[in-house]
Design a protein that fits this description.
Elements lengths: L2 H28 E4 L3 E4 L1 H17 L5 H13 L3 H39 L5 H46 L1
Antiparallel strand pairs: 1-2
Helix pairs in contact: 1-2, 1-5, 2-4, 3-4, 4-5
Length: 171
């Protein structure tokens, strides 16, 4: 399978596991049909939806962009090949660290709520099971998110090389 195909597959699996599975668990456990008013959502269901929204917001933030820009500026100014190689290694480490950081911070709200459930287990027994299912589902999504991160760079690089080669042969 090509890098682009793997990237698309990992992106789909990441999204389905992270948000689809979690959303399905919330809907199945907390939204109950009531013919008089439509659908009712319990307080714990509202808390879960807020948590999912915050997790989704966190997923799309770019926390490392300033540091990456600094590395790229240093790379542009560097003239020594050893220094350039060292900066490239630092950039690769930063990319991996960023992906791991994003996935940890994505899972953190669910893990915190799960800990709270264990503290008040008598009152939140059902929520504990739901949070465990959400954490497992989102953890699976995080694995695919980490797996697709290196492929994104390869795809961008391959695309850029194709454009450069096309411009060289076309002129």
């Amino acid at each position: 399978m090509s890098n682009k195909g793997k990237y698309i597959l990992y992106t789909i699996l990441d999204f389905i596991l992270t948000f689809g599975g979690t959303g399905a668990v919330v809907v199945m456990n907390y939204i109950t049909p009531d013919t008089s008013i439509g659908y009712k959502l319990s307080f714990t269901g509202v808390l879960l939806i807020v948590t999912i929204v915050l997790v989704a917001k966190n997923r799309f933030e770019h926390t490392y962009q300033n540091k990456m820009n600094d590395y790229l500026q240093a790379l542009a100014k560097a003239t020594d090949s050893a220094v350039k190689e060292q900066i490239n290694e630092s950039i690769e480490k930063l990319k991996v660290a960023n992906v791991v950081y994003q996935n940890i911070t994505t899972l953190l709200p669910i893990a915190i709520m799960l800990c709270c459930c264990y503290i008040a287990i008598d009152y939140l027994e059902e929520l504990t099971g739901v949070l465990e299912a959400c954490l497992v589902s989102m953890g699976g999504g995080a694995v695919f998110n980490i797996m697709k991160a290196p492929l994104k760079d390869k795809i961008v690089e391959e695309s850029a090389l194709k454009k450069v080669n096309k411009n060289i042969t076309g002129t």
